[in-house]
Amino acid sequence: MNQSNIRNFSIIAHIDHGKSTLADRIMEMTNTITERESKAQLLDDMQVEQNHGVTVKSRTVRNRYRDDNGQDYEFNFIDTPGHVDFNYEVAKSLAASDGVILLVDATQGIQAQTVANYRLAVEAGLKIMPVINKVDSPNAQIEMTTQQLLELDASFDAESILQISAKTGQGVHAVLEAIVNSLPAPNGDINKPLKALVFDSEYDSFKGVIASVRIIDGQVKADQELLLMANSAAFTNKEVGIFTPAKAATKQLAAGDVGYIVTGIKDPHLVRIGDTITNQNTPTDEPLPGYEPAQPMVYAGIYPQGDYNEMKDALNKLALNDSSLQLVPEVSDALGPGFRGGFLGIFHLQIIRERLKDEFGIEVLTTAPNVTYRVHLKNQPNVLTVDNPIQFPDFEQIEMVEEPMVKAIITTNDAELSAVMKLADQHKGIFVDMGNQGSLVELTYQMPLSEIAYDFFNKLKSVSHGYASLSTTLDGYKLADVVRVDVQINYARVDALTFVTHRTDAPEQTKQLVHKLKYTIPRRLYPMPAQAVVEGRVIARVDIPPLRKNAAVNGNQYSVSKKQALLRRQSINKRQAVKSDVELPQSVFNSILDLNE
């Protein structure tokens, strides 16, 4: 295919604005899939995507299109997620694209991730094509949505904003024609040495690592000797091909094409997202700039409920498929060997846990998420970086603690402004600035990362009825008055339940926590105290009731001798309990997540 007839593009949108439905219509109208193969949200094939109704993993598919003039074109569509936790996936997809379709729901207008993803496209220097979806709905507000788009970007023209219904197919043909006429073709040189961007990858037990690539310059065929430039890893590729959306082998991939390369590499760590693939014998002069490494927002422990090695292999394969997941081995006294995982957000953590179960059949325990603190110790010049609450020093050793801050940009409309500002104040937000983004209000806050890492985005969507967007960037560290909370079950410290919180929040949070533990810790034949300890003091306590009535609180039902015998037996059990492990279900760790609800 001539380069001038290739279009590499993505669709960016807020959740539920119809991105996956539009992708389905494009594949149907270009005969990429047959009527028998057609189904709703075809590209969202993972179980977690179907369960939550969101795109988690970007997918690629090649479409063949013949325009109204009888000219054939190659459309390489690179899918993007819509949830705020997966902005990194969006950035990866945009790096392999030359243009984007900005899709907006006519019944909702410009919402949350619409603005955030628009900014990513602008930063990537991509041509943006605005499209309004769901115009056939009786609740459609086409004029309002058009005005919002014009205020968002002054370069948009009201007459060129397409109006479609992705569900019925109305107007989708005009979108296909606009892709041909409005979006640019790639500009690579087929005669230069091979330069291919690895924008995604997956692991196959038989074929090894399969890299999704965008060919920038040159061309590649099967059985060539290639080189991954970041790790200087040489390999002979076994196969090249395209996504239709299933993998289909081809003779070659040339400049401008998007497809895959079967590397045959069995070590997942050798293939990095953002790496450059080139020829071993005639390499390109300079590698592509690649991607900025993903910055984890929260950390949490991951421990197996079964075999550790099986979980380890599964996580390594997931990390290859999800480059934003970061893993470091660790060992817990209560839960044994596991990993400390770095995640983009709380929803990202939930998705990883569900993928382990759905794709590998592995059940895991995940501890409460936390952020990274800088701890200054007394009489020591070195600063201790703590991303695991278990490693947080005792209070008598600490000079001061710094916590990570973020610059949070919240975009909302006038109606929800008061509720959004109130929510930011409740989460210790420091107001910085207020401005306008078209018809929307743009608020800038400085906030502790720990305050927004868990459920702030969900609360923001709730108070703003889905209209507010959240964009965050790390903004250094700031002094904080935080304490380590140790949780003891039956007088034995459970390190996996340790967490760090602000001192002012500790009394109320620990009171809620021990109350929840009362109903989530598995009961035994004797009562067990659950208590929270801060700086050597117990600040909250509750007794977990026994499976049966306790002889010590049964009044005069038994004789004195019977009661004394039962008390002696219970006392022995208590002493043994301090030395024994407490089996913790996932609901125990979820108790810490729910403290602010």
UniProtKB/TrEMBL annotation:
List the subcellular locations.
Answer: Cell membrane
Going by the entry's taxonomy, the superkingdom of the source organism is recorded as: Bacteria
Chief location of this protein? membrane
Q: Under which EC number(s) is this enzyme classified? A: 3.6.5.n1
Role played: Required for accurate and efficient protein synthesis under certain stress conditions. May act as a fidelity factor of the translation reaction, by catalyzing a one-codon backward translocation of tRNAs on improperly translocated ribosomes. Back-translocation proceeds from a post-translocation (POST) complex to a pre-translocation (PRE) complex, thus giving elongation factor G a second chance to translocate the tRNAs correctly. Binds to ribosomes in a GTP-dependent manner.
Key words, A-Z: Cell membrane, Elongation factor, GTP-binding, Hydrolase, Membrane, Nucleotide-binding, Plasmid, Protein biosynthesis
GO MF annotation list: GTP binding; GTPase activity; ribosome binding; translation elongation factor activity
The protein in question is named Elongation factor 4
UniProt organism field: Nicoliella spurrieriana
- Gene Ontology process terms (BP): positive regulation of translation
Which residues belong to any copy of the Tr-type G domain?
4-187
How this chain sits in the membrane, per its record, is: Peripheral membrane protein
Q: Which family does it belong to?
A: Belongs to the TRAFAC class translation factor GTPase superfamily. Classic translation factor GTPase family. LepA subfamily.
Annotated Gene Ontology cellular component terms: plasma membrane
